[in-house]
Amino acid sequence: MAGKIAILGATGPEGSGLAGRWARAGLQVVIGSRDARRAQEAAAQLGARVGAKLEGADNLTAVAEADIVVLTVPFPEVPSLLHQLRSAWKPGQIVIDTTVPLAATVGGGATRVLGVWQGSAAEQTRELLPKEVQLAAALQNLGAELLAGDQPVDCDVLVSGDDEQAKQTAMELVEKIPGARALNGGKLENARIVESLTALLIGLNIRYKVHSAGIRFTGLPKTK
Amino acid sequence: MAGKIAILGATGPEGSGLAGRWARAGLQVVIGSRDARRAQEAAAQLGARVGAKLEGADNLTAVAEADIVVLTVPFPEVPSLLHQLRSAWKPGQIVIDTTVPLAATVGGGATRVLGVWQGSAAEQTRELLPKEVQLAAALQNLGAELLAGDQPVDCDVLVSGDDEQAKQTAMELVEKIPGARALNGGKLENARIVESLTALLIGLNIRYKVHSAGIRFTGLPKTK
């Protein structure tokens, strides 16, 4: 797997965690943000912490340069971001949607998800992207606290999508995170279930007073 | 934990699996069915297989005798069953709802769930039960194939509900199944997420050509 990965929203904790993990794994990472200066500062700080070089750019520039674009902005910001990016996409680019329609993103409870007309955040993203861009939904269940350090995670990552190449790429990216196992999550519509799992994990974190509840699936073959 | 457990629908594979596990653990189990004769035959067969004595009765009789009632009938049969049972309940009885509104139960896809007006099968059940009866939702993610044998399962079981005593009882019953760890799944509304997980597990079974995908949560404290 080659190419440049733009992580939009990587000035936030989730995107920053992914950026750090992938930069440490030797991948080319660009941090995207509304503000180029802020993105560059975040890239420099994160690069110093993980011992790797990252770039920073405004979202449009980041997307224009990238082969893979990862969405880590809060759910309510996705439609306007994708509207702003609508002329920036190039055929063959791959988008990985990690967003979750948590009710907390609009002031609701941390353990609930919003109803999304299309069925899930990922299906909404699919509707807002041009057809020439491939989409996979992944990484919704890996919390920022798990990604922050350099410890291996103890988690499976379901990758859902209707575009095989995007799924394959997302699964390869997932397995660059130590400890993470990528699983074929089936069609994009399954993101409905995977996204809601994040709310369940937040509830477990609250009830069990931890910060890093994760998920593993049992009974699967050893080889994928 | 004491008392008699009536499992309604235990002539089917899921209920039969639970009946076998709990009878083997020394609990008093009554298999409930529409037809008393069929329930008695199933109880005798299962008893011979697991080396324990089980009873069989029609649903009304089973509920009248039970301290704990476990629903394992297919989702579309729940409303009429609860309607039929409406005069049979006694205050203090505990109901454990294991049902999942799989689309397959009405001829749809195996990897999808139906929309339920109340939010979940369990919340619908709550609406159809008298207030004096306590409810917990649990065991939706333990497949019949996993329950069929006597091997330990490698699965966590989320127990959701708004009635503390029912949750506690359900958690104790879960831990009578070797290998199963009961987890506090929070409020009854979380059954929405837990039920949909069953559809996800069925999808993993299909994609990975296995029959016993299960779920474990990581990052939780060792003691509950």
Could you walk me through the main structural features you see in this protein, from its secondary elements to its overall organization?
Two copies of one chain form a homodimer. The model of chain A has no long low-confidence stretch (mean pLDDT 96). In chain A, helix 1 crosses helix 2 (36-50). Chain A contains eight helices and nine strands. Chain A has 224 residues and is α/β, with parallel strands linked by helices. The first copy, chain A, has a six-stranded parallel sheet with strand order 3-2-1-4-5-6, sandwiched between helices. Chain A is globular, with a radius of gyration of 16 Å. Chain A has helices spanning 13-24, 36-50, 59-65, 78-84, 121-128, 144-148, 164-174, 191-208; strands at 4-8, 28-33, 55-58, 68-71, 94-97, 134-137, 156-159, 181-184, 214-218. In chain A, strand 4, helix 4 and strand 5 (94-97) form a beta-alpha-beta unit. Strand 9 of chain A pairs antiparallel with strand 9 of chain B, so a sheet runs across the interface.
Compute the CA-based radius of gyration of chain A: 16 Å
Biggest interface and which pair forms it?
A: A-B, 38 and 37 residues
Question: What is the overall pLDDT average of chain A?
Answer: 96
Overall shape of chain A: it is globular
How much β-strand is present in the residues of chain A? 15-25%
Described by its quaternary structure, the protein is homodimer
Ranges of chain A where pLDDT stays below 50 over 5 or more residues in a row are none
Largest sheet composition of chain A: 6 strands, parallel
Portion in helices of chain A: 25-40%
Give, in order, the helices and strands of chain A.
EHEHEHEHEHEHEHEHE
Derived from helix and strand composition plus strand pairing, the structural class of chain A reads alpha/beta
Number of helices of chain A: 8
By DSSP, the count of extended strands of chain A is: 9
> Looking across the biggest beta sheet of chain A, what order are the strands in?
3-2-1-4-5-6
Separation of the first and last Cα atoms of chain A: 18 Å
